[in-house]
Design a protein that fits this description.
The structure holds two protein chains of two kinds. Chain A is α/β, with parallel strands linked by helices. Chain A has one domain: TIM Barrel. Helices cover about 25% and strands about 15% of the residues of chain A. Chain A is built from six helices and eight strands; from the N terminus they run E-E-E-E-H-H-E-E-H-E-H-E-H-H. Chain A is globular, with a radius of gyration of 19 Å. Helix content of chain B is about 35%, strand content about 15%. Chain B has 18 helices and 20 strands. In chain B, a hairpin with a 4-residue loop joins strand 1 and strand 2. Classes of the chains: A alpha/beta, B alpha+beta. Chains A and B meet through helix 3, helix 4 and helix 6 of A and helix 1, helix 2, helix 5, helix 6 and helix 9 of B.
Chain lengths: ~180, ~575
């Protein structure tokens, strides 16, 4: 199960993670819906792009610009959070959405916890695979921690000061 | 000062709700301590030696009388009757219980305050000039921009898990009073040749283990673009700052590694498609926020008050106070008053609940109900009528707030040190007290003149020892013994510099004698009107070093080496204390 578009839904994608003895060039990518590491995509691009549905995931130290030109080929792009405190994935997501124009499913995988989901959805994630040892129903609540925000990011497109009419000082203290 | 509208209030109220639920989950065991730690840190809650310490944000140091009274209430109800003002213009309470913290945050929210992002690897409280809006040398008021940056950085979704903490300071005077060279980003409000407002932007300054003075990344960023420009700096840092070693994770290391030219190229490449986008500031928004920082209802007053001169002639103490603790104001007939929290014998920056209530009353009666907290750990009443100075001084003296030592040797900046903090190697506050008592004699202090002395209990430099004229750092040697390194030649402001260590470290009781010897060299070598820092810069370190190490130290240590006194015996140490 994952969270997608603010709801808990069944998920039939498999995330391929390379084992130590596996190489990107030679690893067998199973049939069906697989989210492959960026390195595997790059090594086996010719074969993988023949598939009807393929996904790719980025590690936190990989660059989303590597997918420039291929961005339309994926049904899902995932970003891995090796530790929830590694914040590079937020900038990767922002760049995928705002700079590279990716419009498909953007999924957070790895150490994904309830208290980060609100931030994640604002930089462009619309799907989340919370850590399996936690209740997914609890994680879902994290998406609604705040009903208002100040600054623009991928969401919302405008900062608060361009979205609403805010009042200035109402008390006349100046001469 | 700025007042919340319904949007600000809603965000802070929802934060209290979110945080309360996080505490509930921690207490029920649903969250592990490892998972809870970054959550509580983003709310300024540290697990310290005696219990939990909560750091509450005082945005750019500006606080109302009502808010100050809330601090007094928190000190009484949840703490031990006092609080500690910090070098980043915040306040810390040291003796709290985790289960009380949601109620404290709810109390704070009721007076438009919070503890958001006062710790953690995120953008911290924006600090500024304690004399903003009233200084005679002001180019432009930095407060509206400080508030705009506060809102922009609050819960910024992309920058909550940076490689390391991130500090921004903004100054608006010709003289920098916000230590902008010692910050991750330093902003100086400035005007270009056409008279347009903008910012000189410095990047990569910082103290800690590797002290570095900030470098100019852009000479002039027009005001409309400051948020997007700062955003691009943070995005480059978030992606490329080191995460493998926390001691090399600050932006200063990245800027050094890339070089300022390459760093700037990357920032401006990122900025190219943000510039003029929706994050661009509007005139309406700046005007709206600035409407909260207009002048209070100043009276038209003569600039000179004859009573003042009469009283000055009568009272030497008052005359000293006027000279050291009262600063010129841009409006005739008004003065800026610095209330000293540095009375020798007291912990620098500490204030009791009674003092907090008292200064709140002073603010209401003498200074339009507002106060400032300085990064030198004192308090400021920014708008006092000159004709009120005598009565203000008389009242404040009764509360021990008029020690005439601002900018002098006993105006010591100090972190809490090893009695409170799990990071510190050595005690800071007792050393500050020992030094202050030794140099309490005012005539001697006045003879020495302007000097800054900063104490940090460890290399993390919360006491900003690298930018003190004299800097003292607690260092650990074998057996957890406390030792202190002494450095000289640091300074903040427009001529910022990083101090250099003079030589091998000293014991707790040797330090006052070391300072005495440093002062002796200065008094011997100085030319007329030369400050301590000027003499150090002119003659170099060698004469100071030679004199300090020339003779043995004849001081009594409390206990034999190896069995010293870091554990404060009178405190109850809770079982979960990480240190003991």
């Amino acid at each position: 199960m994952i969270i997608k578009n603010k709801a808990i839904v069944a998920d039939d994608w498999t995330v391929l993670r390379l084992q130590e003895n596996e190489a990107a060039e030679s690893v067998q990518v199973a049939a069906g819906k697989v989210i492959v590491p960026l390195k595997v995509w790059q090594a086996q691009r010719g074969a993988l792009q023949q598939r009807t549905e393929i996904g790719v995931w980025l590690a936190s130290d990989e660059r989303p610009e590597e997918l420039q030109g291929d961005i339309g080929k994926f049904a899902v792009i995932a970003v891995d959070f090796p530790k929830f405190s590694d914040g590079r994935g937020y900038s990767i997501a922002f760049n995928l959405r705002a700079r590279l124009g990716y419009t498909g499913e953007l999924r957070a995988i790895g150490d994904v916890l309830r208290d980060q989901l609100f931030y994640m959805q604002r930089v462009g994630f619309d799907a989340f695979a919370p850590r399996p040892d936690r209740k997914i129903e609890d994680a879902l609540k994290g998406l609604n921690d705040f009903s208002e925000v100040y600054q623009t990011s991928f969401d919302p497109k405008l900062p608060l000061f361009r979205r609403v009419q805010r009042k200035g000082n109402q008390t006349e203290s100046s001469q | 000062m700025y007042r919340y509208d319904e949007y600000d209030q809603k965000i802070v109220d929802e934060r209290v709700k979110q945080y309360s639920d996080q505490v509930r989950r921690r207490l029920s065991g649903e969250l592990t301590e490892e998972e809870f730690m970054p959550l509580r840190l983003q709310n300024g809650l540290y697990m310290q030696i005696h219990g939990y310490m909560l750091r509450i944000a005082v945005p750019y140091g500006l606080i109302s009388a009502q808010q100050m009274r809330m601090f007094a209430h928190i000190a009484r109800k949840y703490d031990r009757g006092y609080g500690h003002f910090t070098t980043r213009q915040n306040i810390q309470f040291n003796w709290l219980k985790l289960q009380d913290t949601p109620a404290i945050l709810a109390d704070l929210a009721s007076v438009q305050m919070h503890a958001i992002q006062t710790s953690g690897n995120c953008v911290r409280n924006i600090t500024s000039d304690e004399f903003a809006g009233v200084a005679q040398d002001e180019v432009a008021d930095p407060r509206p921009y400080a508030e705009i940056l506060r809102q922009w950085s609050t819960f910024h979704p992309e920058f909550a898990f940076l490689p390391r903490k991130f500090k921004i300071a903004i100054s608006g005077g010709r003289e920098d009073r916000a230590a902008i060279y010692a910050h991750d980003i330093g902003l100086a409000v400035t005007k270009n040749a056409q008279g347009e407002t903008g910012f000189r932007v410095l990047v990569g300054g910082g103290l800690g283990r590797t002290p570095i003075i900030g470098t100019e990344i852009c000479e002039f960023v027009p005001w409309q673009h400051i948020l997007t420009y700062v955003e691009s700096i943070l995005r480059v840092y978030n992606q490329y700052g080191r995460r493998d070693n926390k001691y090399k994770a600050r932006i200063k290391i990245l800027v050094k590694a890339l070089g300022i030219d390459e760093f700037k190229r990357q920032v401006e490449a990122d900025w190219a498609d943000l510039k003029d986008g929706p994050g661009t500031l509007t005139r309406e928004e700046v005007d709206r926020v600035a409407s909260f920082f207009t002048d209070p209802a100043y009276e038209t007053l003569p600039d000179h008050d004859s009573r003042l001169n009469e009283f000055k002639a009568d009272s030497r103490s008052f005359s000293h106070w006027l000279q050291r603790n009262v600063r010129p104001h841009r409006v005739p007939g008004y003065a800026i008053v610095v209330l000293s929290l540095k009375k020798p014998g007291n912990a620098p920056g500490d204030a009791t609940a009674e003092q907090m209530d008292f200064v709140a009353d002073l603010a209401d009666r003498y200074s339009f109900g507002e106060l400032r907290i300085t990064h030198k750990q004192n308090l400021v009443l920014a708008d006092v009528r000159k004709k009120d100075l005598v009565s203000l001084w008389q009242e404040a003296s009764a509360q021990e707030l008029t020690t005439p030592n601002i900018g002098m040797l006993t105006d010591i900046i100090s972190c809490p040190g090893a009695e409170f903090c799990t990071l510190a190697n050595a005690r800071s506050i007792p050393l500050a007290k020992l030094i202050a008592e030794r140099f309490e004699d005012l005539d001697y202090q006045y003879d020495i003149g302007e000097i800054t002395l900063n104490i940090s209990g460890c290399v993390n430099a919360c006491g900003q020892h690298h930018i003190g004229n004299i800097g003292i750092t607690g260092v650990e040697k074998k057996d957890h013994d406390e030792w202190y390194q002494v450095s000289i030649g640091g300074a903040e402001g427009n001529d910022s510099s990083i101090s250099k260590i003079i030589g091998p470290s000293f014991t707790f009781h040797q330090v006052p004698e070391v300072i005495e010897r440093l002062i002796q060299v200065y008094l011997r070598e100085r030319t007329e009107a030369e400050r301590f820092i000027d003499t150090v810069r002119r003659i170099g370190h060698a004469p100071f070093k030679d004199h300090v190490y020339a003779a043995d130290f004849d001081v009594q240590e409390e206990e034999v080496a190896g069995k010293h006194i870091v554990v404060p015996a009178q405190y109850d140490v809770p079982y979960f204390s990480p240190r003991f």
